[in-house]
Amino acid sequence: MKRLEPLKKIYNPAKWSFFKFDDRLLLILIGAIVGISSGLAAIALNRSLIAILDMLHHYRHLWWAFILPGIGALLSSVFLDKILKEGAGHGVPEVIYSVSRRGGLIRFRSSFSRLISSCLTIGSGGSAGPEAPVVMSGAAIGSNIASFFSLNDRQRITLVGCGAAGAISSIFNAPIAGMVFTMEVILGEWSTVNIIPIAIASVAGTEISRILNGNQIAFEHASFNIGLHDTLICIELALITAIVSIILTRLLRQMHSISNKIKAPLWVRAGIGGCVVGIMGFFMPVVLGEGYHFIQDMINGTFSTGILIAFIAVFAKIIATSFTLGWGGSGGIFAPGLVIGSLTGISFCRIIHMLWPDVSWMNEGCFGLLGMAGVISGMLQAPLTGIFLIVEITGGYEVILPLIIVSSISSTLCCFFEPASFYLKDLIKNGQLLRPGTDARVLADLSIVEVIETDCLRVKNNMILRDFITIIQKSKRNHFPVEDHKTGFFLGMINLDNVKPYIFNDMVYDAILLEQIMNTETDIDTISLEDDLSTVLKLMDSQELFSLPVISNKKFVGMISKATILNKYRTELMIQSTK
């Protein structure tokens, strides 16, 4: 590390006078580097998956081939959990958490750990996608490059977004989708400061993909002819895709819960889940791997299975994905979501053709495309991501109107039944999601220490009222903390309301001790230095309080008032709004 210090000093933006006034050019330049790097990571994973799939293809027909996904998931779990000491996960929630709570800080090993683990899981046949791992990898690359250049938290978060955008753009050859996904899902805000660097990173990642893989549309299709009746039937398709999205989301979480209740090491559970997927894949190959070649068949209208098999395949893929990811495998939900959406679309198409055979419906490839948009938009609750992703990976610009209908309705319905998306559910549940511009995010950047007031006059419990009245005359406050005269521990509070019944009767000045009239610690609410201000404000609002004592190690530290919190909040909001 020491030999890198001179480079850090050379490239430290604080020494470049130009960047002291405007760092946008700096973020654009470094964002391009991050986009190229994350694009290369995506291509490396893609080619590794192709190599492993080709190597294992010759064994798929053998009776014992069902253990291949189990072995892959097992090795993936051992690699993450035992070797790198990283827990299993989808990758994207970890990136969102780093943006929300850690200023975009991500460990360097995350730039390759999920690539290797997901390669083992997906390459062996596990039902998962490579998108979330490359997002994690790209985000980690951006975070560590930002740390290398000694950038601040805001700049680091922007480069984390650049890495995520470059990765998605590269793997799908879809620059707009990469940018939209990052702004809508990862960062959760459309900031003008972030859009340009992230757009540049998306383009850089895409160009790297086009240079090395060629400028190819991921899923090509023939032209679609869409009539008014096709557009109207899309409303029903949106309802179906919303239901499928909710089923997939809930089953994935349920599988996590079931797996965690089994008293076995994680790698054993991952192996079991993989073997279940392998058994399913022996009878229904569509559930294995990422399944992109099946999507191409469905969009082309060459998916030859019957309506019953296609319908069963929807739920088989959902179950296979749940066993893969819910039991310890590594990967994302993008690819399975696309496959499930395509299967849902063509199943719906075949049903309406059977019910209304005389109507000239658009072909099932178009329904497969719309199904993909509905499921992705529903699971992520990100309609713009669903729209632009499907448009770019298929070139289906002529279906933009039905795409908007399906994506918006599906995401809205899913939001009604599942208030948080698949990626955000656990973060919200654990109080770890703080989106930019929200009260919680602004308050999270403040601490108790910043707003604490230490000018309170402390009194002892054995003090007589006469001495206390003298102190009142010197104080500017109405609250007085009472401490034990021996230990100094906090015992309670006295305010002027406690004294009013006695203050005009000087006959009792020497007869009353403060411990007789104070509010004891058990009767009042207190907070500690570790509490966050959002919780403190909720307590104040619920109890209709304007100030609270802060206690640390049983001793009084100071007071915190709502007025001071709101004043600091306003100052912090002004600072953040100018970033």
Describe the protein's architecture and organization:
The protein has three domains: 212 residues, Clc chloride channel (Orthogonal Bundle), CATH 1.10.3080; 202 residues, Clc chloride channel (Orthogonal Bundle), CATH 1.10.3080; 137 residues, CBS-domain. The N terminus is likely disordered. It has a four-stranded mixed β-sheet. It has a two-stranded antiparallel ribbon with strand order 5-6. It contains 26 helices and six strands. Helix 11 packs parallel to helix 18 and helix 14 runs antiparallel to helix 15. It is elongated and about 100 Å long. Strand 2 and strand 3 form a beta hairpin. With 579 residues, the chain is mainly α. 65% of the residues lie in helices and 5% in strands.
SSE arrangement:
Layout (H helix, E strand, L loop, with lengths): L4 H7 L5 H5 L2 H34 L9 H17 L8 H10 L8 H14 L7 H18 L4 H20 L2 H13 L4 H22 L14 H34 L4 H18 L8 H9 L6 H20 L7 H22 L8 H17 L2 H12 L5 H18 L7 H5 L9 H6 L3 H4 L7 E2 L4 H10 L4 E5 L6 E6 H8 L10 H4 L1 E2 L12 H11 L3 E6 L2 E7 H16 L2
Parallel strand pairs: 1-2
Antiparallel strand pairs: 2-3, 3-4, 5-6
Helix pairs in contact: 3-6, 3-7, 3-8, 3-10, 4-6, 4-12, 6-7, 7-8, 8-9, 8-10, 9-10, 9-17, 11-14, 11-15, 11-16, 11-18, 12-14, 13-15, 13-16, 14-15, 15-16, 16-17, 16-18, 17-18
